[in-house]
Design brief:
The structure is a homodimer. Chain A has five helices and eight strands; from the N terminus they run βαβαβββαβααββ. The first copy, chain A, has a six-stranded mixed beta sheet, sandwiched between helices. In chain A, a hairpin with a 2-residue loop joins strand 4 and strand 5. Chain A is globular, with a radius of gyration of 16 Å. Chains A, B: It comes from Tolypothrix tenuis PCC 7101.
């Protein structure tokens, strides 16, 4: 799988220039690049059937790579306040600070909630940085219908950029298939994410 | 239908103290209070069947009241920028300024998108004020499963309150049934909202 865009949605303070971010960014890049399809190949080829592929096995492959190669924790429960907005997909602790990563498999409005959740963590000082992984509009038509995607979220960036934060960093990674081929099997719900990494 | 809470989520500038808001607020209050069930009664009684009632006919009743009694426009297309986030449920023009109202019938993450959409309109100066109507947690179990509700959105208020806005106002109206009665008909998809107002 390739990354076609990396966007710094929020960057207040020095985290973006830090060695910590350089390490974490490389781990995220590496985990995404490790996702392949079909299993056993060296790149990510997708069957271009309309809404023909599930996104959960693809996410799972990335999560396995983050945990097993780079020691991230998965499905970390987060308490920001008395009311908890729930878990984040993956977190990594560096220098006692927590970095959070979300890979949304829901529809476009879920991506709004995911960003709001990470910003709340930045406001509360629970995360020093966070990242969201999103499919590009080119990958979008081959995935589950109405999946969150970069181009549909972009018109709202000014809202999040206007949030007053003392310190914090939020990046978006936009991912895309390497090639299409209608002869490769579709990624079904039952596909084991472990096979794709 | 009754309003159990009115929250000023964002209030920058003088709109909250204005005569315009006093008029608009009364129109919203009146439109909500006009929603009845079963048709022809004088209050809103709901069948307390778990996820037994659709929310679209209830919303439709409020929209009809706003349009027919108070001259609001419905499903107003909005262009904030080159990319449009689409329509808002109802708008009212006062003194050349537009006030927007959203009544979300989607799941909780749709409520996140609805608030982000209204805040974008405030940032762009397209709206002077906006309001979101949400069911309370008490009404929630009797409506479509996973519908957006006030209590689940509240933990995120600090995110929206931290948005730097030069001028703008965003209110949330929390609505609830007047009483429950398992002998009244459930509100089905086919229910005509016009009958409930």
């Amino acid at each position: 799988m390739k990354i076609v865009q990396e966007v710094s949605l929020i960057s207040v303070g020095s985290f973006e220039e830090s060695n910590d971010w350089s390490i974490i960014r490389n781990e995220i890049r590496e985990a995404i690049s490790l996702i392949v399809n079909p299993p056993g190949t060296f790149s990510f080829t997708i069957n271009p059937a309309k809404h023909g592929n599930g996104v959960k096995p693809i996410k799972e492959a990335c999560m396995i790579a983050l945990r097993e190669r780079f020691g991230w924790s998965l499905e970390t429960p987060i308490n920001y306040a008395t009311k908890s907005p729930g878990k984040v997909d993956a977190t990594k602790i560096i220098d006692n600070y927590r970095f959070a990563l979300e890979w949304e498999t829901g529809n476009i409005s879920s991506s709004h909630r995911a960003i709001n959740k990470m910003i709340l963590g930045l406001l509360r000082g629970v995360f020093l940085g966070a990242a969201l992984v999103l499919p590009s509009r080119k990958l979008y038509p081959y995935l589950t219908d109405r999946i969150g995607n970069y181009e549909e979220l972009e018109p709202y960036f000014d809202v999040w950029r206007a949030v007053k934060i003392e310190e914090g960093f939020l990046a978006i990674f936009v991912i895309e298939h390497d090639q299409i081929d209608s002869s490769v099997p579709k990624i079904t719900k039952g596909t084991d994410g472990r096979a794709l990494v």
